[in-house]
Design goal:
Elements lengths: L1 E8 L6 H15 L3 E7 L7 E4 L1 E2 L4 H7 L4 E2 L3 H8 L4 E4 L4 H12 L4 E4 L4 H7 L6 H15 L4 E4 L2 H9 L5 E4 L6 H4 L10 E4 L10 H9 L7 E6 L5 H10 L4 E4 L3 H9 L3 E4 L8 H8 L4 E4 L16 E2 L4 H13 L1 H14 L5 H25 L2 H10 L3 H27 L1 E4 L2 H4 L5 E5 L6 H9 L5 E4 L1 H4 L4 H7 L3 E2 L4 H16 L3 E4 L18 H9 L3 E13 L2 E10 L11 H21 L1
Helix pairs in contact: 1-15, 3-4, 5-6, 9-13, 15-22, 16-22, 22-23, 23-24
């Protein structure tokens, strides 16, 4: 592949986002890909297409204190960088990325993006961390950018959930920033003269290195502890002043990789005190190097996911809680050694190679999506696409028919004739965004039963093409807004692209994974992959629904009851390759459907 990375300043080595980007670029090149870089800089970096610095009054001054600068989009340079490119990856959501995305879209070049800029980082840096509504506004502002992106790289489950909570209509792929093999090769040999604590990161308010300094200053082991803070940033003077005033042994300053490796190899403990963090690759590097972490248990940080025990967590912004954890590990070296072995095994799933595998897959899926979009614009594609897309008039008539005519009549029919009972509809009502509904196919009207289960939301129902041509029923199939199931490769690609966009934007999609109808079949048949592929492709849950028939005695008559039972949503695993996630989701759904059969 020919890949273009767009990042404002590839030279900012104290910035975790830049460090991660450079590692990804290097790894992708080793795998034979041509990687170009659009960024501030000069031609001293391989594949760089240089951009000028963009000055924004006031904002640039504030950003500079956080070691951040912005690039100025140069259309001529952007056009040059895009020649022959297969896919574009946008690292940050600033102006250059927005301009590149627009130009790439005009050229039918797919774009992916990373979500590295947590809104809380911005508000903390500006001293507005107590105004939570501002974070919401920034998430909303960013959403305008990410909603136009096919796939978004989230470095952790934590930030993926934040994107879902803020209704980002993009396919989310959880891919760790990844730890280089060099950190796994470190042989840890603790210093004997001092208990050395390392805490790597930019010197910024939200990183909370001051909490570590305060914890050590109040410890009975203060004189036995050395603190190493690899990094740089605007809070360095404040941290140095506190260390001097309290006579702490602290080493400051940015460290190159070989220097950092030496520091980690001699350390005793790693502390991550940050209040806000998307992943904390520095913490993962320390764990891979053989250090046991002590992590701030902040709700706005992804780093607590790395804690294997309660002893590895402390209350955020609480130096007393941190001091207790540090003293515990000083006093219990055998416990620390036991955890060290566990952590080294745990860290293997965060190796850079595994992350690059997932990243490559994301880029390829984005290219496939673009091809599907291009196919929908072909002559044959347009014909099928028209059957998937209804005009405003048809949508209005369809909605009126559905809510004012079909549902009221069928409700009475279900209630008094078929005797249909619904169980646990709350599981569908609890879903805020999109989802894929799946059920067994055992009644001619079970699609309507599933629609009732989802009420008041209206699912997109899928149906065989033949159903649209039936003399009378076909009229209602069309009016009720059903979409045809594809029957060739071209239509399948267009179908999944179209349904995925609907699911990502909050629609419920109903699919029968069993395929054909077998009336009153008591056995769960083997599922086809389509529904689960759609859920994984759209980053939305599967909601299993099971329909069963129960005979019972009503006075002296034998009656039948139809029970439509809804199961708990099953979310796809966004941290593993798509095929693995699909198979895992299908297996979980089969197990839950079997459980629903027994209830």
């Amino acid at each position: 592949m020919v890949i273009l990375f767009v990042i404002d300043n590839i030279h900012q080595l104290s910035n975790g986002t830049t460090i991660t980007t450079k590692r990804y670029i290097e790894a992708l090149r080793k795998r034979g890909h041509e990687v170009r870089i659009l960024s501030i800089g000069s031609n001293d970096i391989e594949g760089l297409y240089p951009l000028p610095v963009r000055y924004i009054p006031i904002v640039s001054e504030v950003a500079a204190k956080q070691d951040v600068s912005f690039s100025k989009p140069d259309r001529q340079m952007i056009e040059k960088a895009l020649v022959g490119v297969d896919v574009v990856h946008l690292v940050t959501p600033w102006k250059t990325s927005r301009v590149v995305r627009k130009i790439a879209s005009q050229k039918n070049i797919p774009t992916t993006a990373s979500f590295h800029i947590q809104p809380e980082n911005i508000t903390f840096g500006a001293g507005l961390n107590h105004f939570g509504f501002i974070n919401k506004l920034i998430y909303r502002r960013f959403r305008r950018f990410y909603e136009k992106i096919s796939y978004t790289h989230a470095p952790s489950n934590f930030i993926a959930q934040e994107l879902k909570n803020n209704h980002y209509p993009t396919t989310i792929k959880v891919i760790s920033n990844g730890v280089s093999d060099v950190f796994f090769d470190i042989k840890n040999q603790e210093r004997k003269d001092k208990f050395t604590i390392v805490s790597t990161g930019r010197y910024a308010k939200e990183k909370r290195q001051i909490v570590l300094l305060k914890a050590v200053a109040s410890s009975k082991y203060k004189d036995q502890i050395k603190i190493v803070l690899p990094g740089q940033g605007p809070y360095e003077k404040r941290l140095r002043k506190y260390a001097e005033e309290h006579n702490l042994d602290v080493e400051f300053g940015f460290k190159k990789q070989d220097e950092l490796i030496k520091t980690l190899s001699e350390a005793s403990l790693y502390v991550h005190a940050a209040y806000i963090e998307i992943e904390a690759i520095a913490c993962l590097e320390a764990i891979a190097a053989g250090l046991v972490p002590v992590i701030a248990n902040s709700k706005k940080s992804a780093t607590p996911q790395f804690a294997l025990t309660e002893k590895n967590l402390f209350k955020p912004n609480d130096e007393n809680s941190l001091r207790e954890r540090i003293e515990f590990f000083i006093e219990n070296p055998l416990e620390k050694e036991k955890l060290r072995i566990q952590y080294q095994s745990f860290s293997n799933k965060y190796r850079l190679d595994y992350s690059i595998n997932l990243f490559e897959e994301m880029l390829r899926l984005s290219i496939q999506d673009q091809r599907a979009y291009n196919l929908s614009k072909s002559v044959k594609g347009k014909v099928f696409n028209q059957r998937l897309n209804s005009g405003p008039f048809k949508k209005t008539i369809s909605a009126m028919t559905y809510y004012l005519f079909a549902l009221p009549l069928l409700f009475l029919y279900f209630k008094f004739i078929l005797n249909v009972k619904f169980v646990d509809r709350k599981y569908i009502r609890g879903i805020k965004g999109g989802a894929v509904l799946v059920s067994n196919h055992v009644h001619t009207l079970d699609s309507v039963m599933n629609s009732f289960a989802a009420f008041p939301r209206r699912p997109v129902m899928t149906a065989m093409k033949a159903n649209f041509d039936l003399p009378i029923a076909g009229i209602f199939v069309n009016l009720l807004g059903a979409v045809p199931i594809p029957d060739n490769l071209l239509e399948t690609q267009i179908f999944f692209k179209h349904m995925s966009e609907k699911a990502k934007r909050g629609r419920l999609i109903h699919i029968y994974p069993e395929g054909e109808l077998i009336t009153k079949d008591k056995n769960l048949r083997t599922f086809k992959r389509g529904a689960f592929q759609l859920a994984v492709q759209s980053s939305v849950p599967i909601v299993p629904i099971h329909i069963s028939f129960i005979e019972y005695k009503f006075f002296i008559w034998q009656r039948e009851k139809i029970v439509c039972r809804v199961g708990m949503p099953i979310y796809p695993d966004l941290t593993i390759p798509s095929d693995e996630a699909l198979n895992k989701l299908m297996e979980q759904t089969t197990n839950i459907m079997n459980e629903l059969t027994l209830n």
